[in-house]
Structure formats: C-alpha cells, structure tokens
Give the backbone structure.
Amino acid sequence: MWRYLTKRVAHALFVMWLVATTVFFGLRAVPGGPVRAMLGQEATPEAVAALRRELGLNRPLPIQYVDWMTDLLVGQFGTSITSSEQVATLVAQALPKTLSIAAFGVVLGLLVAIPAGVVGATRRNEPADYAATLAAFLGISMPAFFVGILLAIVFGVWLGWFPTVGYTPLSEGIVAWLKSIVLPGVAVGLPYAAGVTRMMRSSLIETLNAQYMRTARAKGVGSTVRLYKHALQNALMPVVTIAGIQLALVLGGTVTVEIVFGVKGVGRLLVNSILERNYPVTQVAILLVSGIFVFMNLLVDITYTAIDPRVGYGGDEA
C-alpha cells in the first residue's frame, strides 16, 4: 500500500509542478500586464518602466520563474501587487468560505443522488423513476448561477428564510454559518446531484441485469440482499469516478455562485486577480484549485480499493 501511495503522491506532485509552470508562463504570454492594469493605457513609458522595476518584472523571465518556485517550496507565496497584502493571508481569508459552500454542495448532492439513483433503477418506468429522471435533467440543464439567483429570489427575498448576501464565519455560531451557506451550497449541489443520479441509475441497472445477479435471484436470494449486498457495491465503482470528476463542476460553480451571493471566496478572489493581472494572487489561487482536484483524484483512487478489494494497489485486478 505504501508503495502505491508513494507513486500516486509523486505523480500528484509532478502534476502540480506542471500546473505551476504552465500558469506562470501562460499568464505572462497574455497581452497586457499588471503595470498597464494599474497605471492605465495613458501612462508614460517612464512611469511604466519605473513600476516594472519596482515589481521586479524587468528581470529575465527564467530568473523570475526560479525565484517564484524557490519561494513556493519554502511556503512564501508573495505579496499582492495591487493591495500589498500577503497572498497567504488573502487565500486564508477566502478558502474557508469556498470550502464551506463546496462541502455543503457535495454532501447534499451525494445524499440526494444515491437514493434517487437507486429508486430510479429499482422502479424503472414507474412515477418515481420519471420524477428522478426529470429532476436530474432539470439539474443538469440549469447552471449553478441561475439556480442561485432563483433560490435567492424565492428563499431570500420572498420568504426571507436565508440571507442573500455575505458569509458568516463558523465562529459566530453554527446556525448563522449554516444559514449563510445553504443557498449557495444548494446552488452548486443540485447540478452535482443531477450528474451523480444519472450515473447511479444507469450503473445500478447494468449491475442488476448482470448474469451473477440473475443467478442469485434463481437461487432464491432476496431482493433486498441482492440490492444492498451484491449490486450496490459494484454499481458504486463508476459512481465514485464520476463523483470525483464532477467536483470540477462544484468548484467551477462556486466561482459564479460566490459572485451571485457576494461571498469573497477563492473563486471571486481568482476572478478579481485575473482582471487586475495580479500575478502572485492568480498563480496561487489556480494552484490551490488544482491542488484540490489532484487531492480528490488521489482520494478517489484510494477509495476504489476500499470499495472493491479486487482492485490491487498496483492498479491491476487480482
């Protein structure tokens, strides 16, 4: 197991280095830069040159890259170009908000999707199946920001049950914290639940129609035992894959949802830093989001072995 984990962690670190390098050079290949974004297009060449020297952007690109990578390795993320605040501080303030919304959305999505998929698969062509399928199609069709706007209007403005703007830290009370993340969490969780529901339903139908399930039925094994002891475990394998991949949908949705609900999370921080050409903040924010993806993929791979012992740590089936 440790050999497998070591290989997967080494692979993850390589991916992170590749992302960091691509982001560093990719940002600088985009026309415009932080100096023009700060001074405007009417700035004199002398002013532009002076600010470039002040920010260290006049140095050769390879030297800037080596310095940045060296700082990353020792945990120095730099300073925001526009506000002079430490990037680590900005990220530390934004990260709990994004993680709270994303975690709420994922937990809600799984709690809804797995039972809905099971109901759809075990009651095919019945009203419950039609309802689950229709809800899944609606969830996939509506982007997170649109769902967020609808929820804000109905449950925030009309009913007044939840706040429509801002985020309350957990330190100020769990009820206030939950109320502040319910609407954005549901907005990112519903599209996520829709995708997982469809995969759960199709995977379980395929498993229930497998030869070994028909054999179990012929031997008199009860339907409940067949479903929960034999079929569900095998059907979860592709669901775990799609659930991990669709985390991109959740994290991507938080960017727009944070703007809708006025939450200053990582998504909003990233969008603002891109518009300002704020290289240090953009680089670290993208690395952070990429790191979450890489970590979740690593977690999915490890989960495979827990769900199905036939999958060995070397990736081969025994």
Summary: Residues 87-122 form the longest helix (36 residues). The mean pLDDT is 85. The two ends are 14 Å apart (CA to CA).
